[in-house]
Amino acid sequence: MSFVRACALAEIKADRALAVEVDGEDVALVRSGDEYYAIADLCSHAAVPLSEGDVEDGEIECYLHGSRFDLRTGKPTGLPATEKVAVYPVRVEGDDLLVDVTSPTN
């Protein structure tokens, strides 16, 4: 695995997404509860940034048509999306969040 620094933990607000670029990949970093997630920042249905959507109960919602995705698996949990999006391993190191975009978990 090839973890790289994506941002400081303080930059990610609770139940919000932060758009970042990690090694050329657009990624939405999310803190939901006490957990951190990294998910591809592109809805599989409408090709709009997921980072602009709402975060609630371990899911992120696309603001355009309301598709919802599980932050752990990338699987859609609400229509109209039917295809999952990539999720990436994350690791907390000190005050930073590291992401490995070379090893999507799905």
Q: What does this protein structure show overall?
A:
- InterPro entries: Rieske_2Fe-2S, Rieske_2Fe-2S_sf.
- The chain has one domain: Rieske [2Fe-2S] iron-sulphur domain (Rieske Iron-sulfur Protein, 3-layer Sandwich).
- It is built from no helices and eleven strands.
- The chain has strands spanning 4-8, 16-22, 25-32, 35-40, 55-56, 59-61, 68-70, 76-78, 87-88, 90-93, 96-99.
- The strands form three sheets. The chain has a four-stranded antiparallel sheet, with no helix packed on it.
- Strand 10 (90-93) and strand 11 (96-99) form a beta hairpin.
- It is globular.
- The relative contact order is 0.26.
Set down the secondary structure blueprint.
Blueprint: E1 4-8, E2 16-22, E3 25-32, E4 35-40, E5 55-56, E6 59-61, E7 68-70, E8 76-78, E9 87-88, E10 90-93, E11 96-99
Antiparallel strand pairs: 1-11, 2-3, 3-4, 4-9, 5-6, 6-7, 7-8, 10-11
Question: Can you give me a brief rundown of this structure?
Answer:
This protein has about 110 residues and is mainly beta.
Question: Which radius of gyration do the C-alpha atoms yield?
Answer: 12 Å
Order of strands across the biggest sheet? 2-3-4-9
Q: Roughly how much helix do the residues carry, as a percent range? A: under 10%
Helix/sheet category: mainly beta
Overall geometry: globular
Instruction: Tell me the fraction of residues in β-strands, as a range.
Output: 35-45%
Could you list the spans in which at least 5 consecutive residues all have pLDDT below 50? none
Please name the CATH topology. Answer: Rieske Iron-sulfur Protein
At the first level of CATH, the class is Mainly Beta
Write the element-wise H/E pattern from the N-terminal end onward.
EEEEEEEEEEE
What is the CATH architecture term?
3-layer Sandwich
CATH H-level superfamily: Rieske [2Fe-2S] iron-sulphur domain
Instruction: Give the count of structural domains.
Output: 1
> What count of helical segments does DSSP give?
0
- Report the mean per-residue pLDDT as an integer: 95
- Biggest sheet details: 4 strands, antiparallel
Q: What is the straight-line distance between the termini?
A: 15 Å
β-strand number: 11
